[in-house]
Amino acid sequence: MKGRVQPGTWYQYELTCRVYILPRLGGIKFKDLGPGHLQDFYSHNILIGKGMRSIKLIHVVLHQALKRALELGFISRNPADIVKTLNINMVK
User: Fold this and answer.
1) How large is the average pLDDT for residues 17-33?
2) Minimal CA–CA distance to 43: which of 55, 32, 53, 31?
C-alpha cells in the first residue's frame, strides 16, 4: 500500500496505526478479531473525545489492513465490513 498513496497519506496511516490502533488492538490476532472488538474500539474513541474524522480514518486503516489479511487468507471474513462508524450527531 505504501507505494500506492502519497507520502503524507502514508504517514497519516502509519501514525493512526501506531498511536491509536496498536495500543488497543495490537494484542489481538487477526483471526480472533471480531466486529465486537471494533465496535468497542470505536465507542471507546468516541467516549474519550476523538472526532468523527479521526474515527473514520481509524476505520479506513483497519478496513484496508483486514481486507489485505482476508486476501492473504489470514482471516475468513473482514469484521470491519460488518461494523459501522457512528454518526457524530448520534453521539451528541
Assistant:
1) 93
2) 55
- Return the number of other C-beta atoms located less than 10 Å from residue 52's C-beta: 17
Contact 80, 59 (CB under 8 A): yes
DSSP assignments along 54-71, one per residue = HHHHHHHHHHHHHHHHHH
Residues 6+ away with beta carbon under 8 Å from 14: none
Nearest to 25 by CA among 76, 90, 83, 72: 83
Alpha-carbon distance 48 to 80, whole Å?
21
Name the residue type at position 33.
L
Q: Distances in Å between the alpha carbon of 35 and those of 40, 41, 78, 82, 89?
A: 9, 10, 9, 6, 22
pTM of the model: 0.80
Rounded Cα–Cα distance for residues 73 and 12 (Å) = 27
Q: Please state, in angstroms and rounded to a whole number, the distance separating the CA atoms of residues 77 and 50.
A: 27
